[in-house]
Amino acid sequence: MNIGIVIGSVVCTVKTRTLKGRRLLIVRRIVNGKPAGTVIACDATGEAGIGDWVYMIGRAEAALMLDPADPPPSDLTIAGIIDPETL
To answer: CATH homologous superfamily of domain 1-12+20-67?
Structure first.
């Protein structure tokens, strides 16, 4: 399970066809309650924003979550936003 905090977004001038219309966000990973590096994740929710705690899926499942018929080149996908009340 990958958990992180959205800290920004990525602006692309050119994207591959399968990523058009998808947002790419900069996420600071949290491991054992401490920051553990920064990654770029594709937002499948369409709702995540700066400051949101998010749940991410990695590897092949990340691309399949976005489009099973034509998976985009994504190694990390935001699958959901964590409600701050549950933290």
So the answer is: EutN/Ccml (2.40.50.220)
d(Cα 28, Cα 49) in Å, to the nearest integer? Answer: 13
Tell me which long-range contacts 35-39 makes (C-beta under 8 A, separation of at least 24).
Answer: 38/7, 39/4, 39/76
- Tokens 């499948």 found at: 44
The whole-angstrom separation of Cα 64 and Cα 77 is 10
Confidence of residue 71 (pLDDT cuts 50, 70, 90): low
pLDDT in tens, 11-20: 988 888 877 8
| Residue 13: partners with Cβ closer than 8 Å, 6 or more residues away | none
Q: What is the pTM of this model?
A: 0.83
